[in-house]
Amino acid sequence: MSSGATTELHPALEALQPLEKSWYANLGLADLIVGNDRTVRSLDAYPKPLPHDVLHMRESSRLILAGEKDIPVGEGGAWARKLTFASAIFGWGLRLHKAGSLKDRPDEFTPDMVQWSLKDLGTVNKDSSQLASASVMCGNVEPIPDNAAYHLKLAHEAREHWQNYPSDKPWDIKLDRTIRRHSVAYVGWLATGIFNLEMIQPEDYAIGRVFQVATPQDAINLGWSSLEGHESSRLVSVDEAIAQATAGEEVTLIDHRPLQALRMRYGYGVRFANIQAISKSWPLIMYNAFLAEANELNRQSQTLET
Fold first, then answer.
1. Predicted structure pTM score
2. φ/ψ of residue 30, rounded to 5
3. How far apart are CA 174 and CA 79, in angstroms?
4. Is residue 193 a contact partner of residue 2, using CB atoms and an 8 Å limit?
């Protein structure tokens, strides 16, 4: 596995990076708990397309603030689990309506889990940190260990940010730093043929596997069992999709992060049955513009060098 040598990204490519969906889900939940519509207003004012998970989070928040109980949540598993946890602990009585692949993803939550420790919550749903993160945003003040899961650390960071931010001020913009690291590695790969990306959390696995800097055994060694609990079982599905792409077959996977990686690696010469799934975390119009701009900038750079 590799370690990136640069964090630079051309301004035109920076402008095409998506919002950090988990960050706004954390802040949005904290705002809901106190009846503040700030997250809804902040996202209403955002001038660029929203990732679908953020869009569904905003609209479900709007409904909850209006007193509705039947809440469509789209396909966002983390947001659905946050709402499930909060509804149980605060007695909201929400009835969540899931869509797409989320309808088939198991959820092991039971109401007694609102009393569980962060460590115990981290053993649920294929060792996902989603319920532990929900607990943090709902008021759990247990300290988190230095080796805590990435998204649990992000929730802790979001809670501190929420506590110290003026309640009447719109949220500042926070872009997805995981996708940005992937973008930097992709731009480097275009220029040098070397994909430099450090594997620091499970969401790095799909792109690392596609670009041959990570293996399933690496993920197992790192304890990333949560890879089994996403839109697909990524330890298996990513390899299946790579096999389809390299054989010239249509890629049938419906999982946003592997699809982002596969389109980067194999370009437009491969057919994707569910390319729109990319929009879950990166609006497709912005993602396609990013690929086009990155390739054009690389072409210009190569031309100058010759």
1. 0.92
2. -60, -40
3. 17
4. no
